[in-house]
Known about the structure:
With 353 residues, the protein is of the alpha+beta class. It folds into three domains: 113 residues, no CATH class; 64 residues; 131 residues, Histidine kinase-like ATPase, C-terminal domain (Heat Shock Protein 90, 2-Layer Sandwich). The chain contains twelve helices and five strands. A five-stranded mixed beta sheet has the order 1-2-3-5-4, covered by helices on one side. Helix 6 runs antiparallel to helix 7.
Amino acid sequence: xxxxxxxxxxxxxxxxxxxxxxxxxxxxxxxxxxxxxxxxxxxxxxxxxxxxxxxxxxxxxxxxxxxxxxxxxxxxxxxxxxxxxxxxxxxxxxxxxxxxxxxxxxxxxxxxxxxxxxxxxxxxxxxxxxxxxxxxxxxxxxxxxxxxxxxxxxxxxxxxxxxxxxxxxxxxxxxxxxxxxxxxxxxxxxxxxxxxxxxxxxxxxxxxxxxxxxxxxxxxxxxxxxxxxxxxxxxxxxxxxxxxxxxxxxxxxxxxxxxxxxxxxxxxxxxxxxxxxxxxxxxxxxxxxxxxxxxxxxxxxxxxxxxxxxxxxxxxxxxxxxxxxxxxxxxxxxxxxxxxxxxxxxxxxxxxx
Length: 353
């Protein structure tokens, strides 16, 4: 048994072309020997034509079957390689050392190359994700800093300018009509600039997110933007979700913000609904609209080329906190975005760094 096992192991390590050649040689040899012996027996017995045809059919069938089994056995590594590729596509990238040891050298080399490429891609993806996370966190911090600076410096300066203009209007003689008109115009201009500045600050970092929490911030942003554009919006959320970690609050708000902006820019919707709830150990955010929808596969394929990175940004933000994203859409049937993010396992309201 040990000798047979050793021969089998050596045959398995032979290149496929050699296995097929050996198998075909065996089939030809066996067929030639067997055919000669059968022909001699039939000639000695003066067999009739029907018996000769029967043996010819049996011999041919056995030869074809034997050749098929040999080729099937010889090509088994190719089927294993195909299975390996399917497993890699499904995210199971580990290759057994036994697979590399017992297989055809060419197949083993291909499998080893696939394994190496997959590991390189995984390492590169981890590096890119780390860089992306750092960039997003830096962007969030910069937005917060800019919002605070604009509020404390530019906002205060505009407020003082408006106050001074109002004081000048009250102290100026009423007969100076032309100057009053110019002051009124300057007052309206300063007030408009302050209003626009507050919108910019709110877009950078809404104070309601820090002061009141996630639910009021999403409700405020959705209503102030969608309803202003004529889109009916319904927000369904649990009030106790306000006590979430700061990073999770910011992530979910930015995802909802991007989803609302996508509705405004592309959906042409009449109504929208936002649902935010806690399910088990996860926070679930769902944004859906009754707009024109889109071909999801086409958008994913053209996203980078056309610089339409909204869905990619949502995916990236969700993955930063261990979440997953599902998008359902088709032309003429609206869009539904679903995001599920696990709550931190530490239970202390913070994500581990």
